[in-house]
Amino acid sequence: MGIVEGLKVLVTASTRGLGRGAAEVLLDQGAYVVINGRNPENVSKALSELKSRYGERVHGVVADLTSKEDVYRLVDEAVKYLGGLDSLVYITGPPRPGKFTEIGVDEWEYNARLLILNAIWLVNAALPHLRKSSNPSIVFSTSIAVKEPIPYLALSNVLRIGIHGLMKTLARELAPEGIRVNAVLPGHIETERNRRLIEDRALREGKTYEEVYREYASEIPMRRLGKPTEFGWVVTFLVSKYASYVTGASIPVDGGLLRSHF
Ligand SMILES: NC(=O)c1ccc[n+]([C@@H]2O[C@H](COP(=O)([O-])OP(=O)(O)OC[C@H]3O[C@@H](n4cnc5c(N)ncnc54)[C@H](OP(=O)(O)O)[C@@H]3O)[C@@H](O)[C@H]2O)c1
Name one Pfam family in it (predicted). Predict the structure, then answer.
């Protein structure tokens, strides 16, 4: 018997990387899961891999999280497939790396949709369904950048803070209704996105991929990058009834990288 047996969960941005890690642990632990991505090929590839292990407990919806219409349709289709909704696990696509001065005004607008506005749309669409659940929760995935800004990730440093304002606001407002709202802050997890960040830094600093990878790892007290399923286990715990008295919390999954006390 898994720790989220029978729970109905929508995990956004989940054909690979962190979202996929979360979806896999949730499925392993008995949940029914709807995955999502923008690219139809990625969604059907991920879906056929997951269906071969979890059968009809998993479904996929193609939707672009920067489009309000797509986000409302995504929740609608997820609820139809699952027959309700117990948990919304919010993960989004990655912003491009860069300094503040390298990012144009239009790019800020696009990334505001990618990194913050879509969370507001998703919560609005999901809330009426979560209110009908007996174990409702929302888990927002952000980044350790919300506690300690990361050089060359201006978009993430600036915009993700808003998700924490949303998380703390919702946690207090929804606690009397029994809806728990928490955040997970990944550090360096081995995903395609992280491989691109390492390549980018290697190019900027005239180093090899392996040199930068070793530098990344040496900055982490646990001396290695994390696995998507290690992130997924923390998400799954927060979705489960074992986190029944946890709300408004921000949990880093970073191998000890953050230095701040809180
Ligand atoms: N990996 C880390 O160490 C780390 C650390 C901190 C924060 N983060 C953040 O966590 C998020 C996930 O990172 P990741 O490393 O898992 O990235 P990834 O390996 O590149 O995976 C990204 C996933 O998001 C989907 N996606 C991208 N844009 C989308 C959109 N507009 N609408 C719907 N789905 C979309 C992709 O599917 P499609 O391509 O099919 O759309 C894919 O499934 C990003 O926001 C990233 O910045 C990652």
Answer: adh_short_C2
> Which CATH architecture fits 8-189+227-251?
3-Layer(aba) Sandwich (3.40)
Render each residue's pLDDT in the chain as its tens digit; 262 residues. Answer: 999 999 999 999 999 999 999 999 999 999 999 999 999 999 999 999 999 999 999 999 999 999 999 999 999 999 999 999 999 999 999 999 999 999 999 999 999 999 999 999 999 999 999 999 999 999 999 999 999 999 999 999 999 999 999 999 999 999 999 999 999 999 999 999 899 989 988 999 999 999 999 999 999 999 999 999 999 999 999 999 999 999 999 999 999 999 998 8
Centre of ligand 1 from the C-alpha of residue 176, in Å: 32
252 CA distance to ligand 1 centroid (A)? 17
Q: Is the CB of 232 under 6 A from ligand 1?
A: no
CA of 218 to the centre of ligand 1 (A): 24
Domain boundaries defined on the chain: 8-189+227-251, 191-225
Helix H, strand E, coil C: the string for the chain is CCCCCCCEEEECCCCCHHHHHHHHHHHHCCCEEEEEECCHHHHHHHHHHHHHHHHHHEEEEECCCCCHHHHHHHHHHHHHHHCCCCEEEECCCCCCCECHHHCCHHHHHHHHHHHHHHHHHHHHHHHHHHCCCCCCEEEEECCHHHCCCCCCEHHHHHHCHHHHHHHHHHHHHHHHHCCEEEEEEECCECCHHHHHHHHHHHHHHCCCHHHHHHHHHHHCCCCCCECHHHHHHHHHHHHCHHHCCCCCCEEEECCCCCCCCC
Q: Is the CB of 147 under 6 A from ligand 1?
A: no
- Residue 192 alpha carbon, nearest atom of ligand 1: 19
